[in-house]
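[step 3/7] fold_predict: job queued, chain A
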Amino acid sequence: MKKAVVLLSGGLDSSTCMAIAKHDGYELYALSFDYGQRHLRELESARKIAEHFGVKEHKILKIDLGQIGGSALTDESIDVPVDRDEERMAEEIPVTYVPARNTILLSFALAYAEVKDADAIYIGANALDYSGYPDCRPEYYSAFEEVARLGTKRGVEGRPIEIKYPLIRMSKAEIIRTGMKLGVPYELTWSCYRGGEKACGVCDSCKLRIKGFREAGYRDPIDYELEPQW
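[step 4/7] structure written:
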């Protein structure tokens, strides 16, 4: 059976991506990270999502990007922006961008994929309803796939590891509709940039999630501090 490593944050997109990988017929290996982020609430979700989809193995690696800083997600002295509209989100790369995060995480995933002799790496990157991150663009993933081909034993042997990013051109609503069809338990996922018992509803990630559920015609099953209008 073909194998895939899925980068699983515990959020809406990565959980949908895992459902797609399973639907595509792969044996699943999940990789999550404690990278020094502001909270670990999302890792609780990652564990539950991995269990739900019956992954063969789920590893949570600890790396400390907080020592580097430069992001509101890894440095508590930088405030997480709230109540931004979509136009403002698109104007500039926000302070929630973690420098080179996807490059770092994909590098770990590439090593893990080689060890497991996996054929593909799935990542839930999205270039439409996102907060302007440069490592969420299709040209970035095409370039990384070439790095994977040139820099791995499998690649040199003519069996390159494919980088799959099936959500890249989907709107958040399309992602949610896809996940609903594939049985993603969105009540187990976590997207909020801020920790807590309930999602804040006002950070960029929450606002994009709420918009996606509203446009998809569903009510988000998670709790918010201030319940949105559906």
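[step 5/7] annotate
The helical segments are 12-23, 41-52, 86-91, 101-116, 138-150, 153-156, 172-181, 204-216.
The CA atoms of residues 69 and 75 lie 6 Å apart.
exit 0
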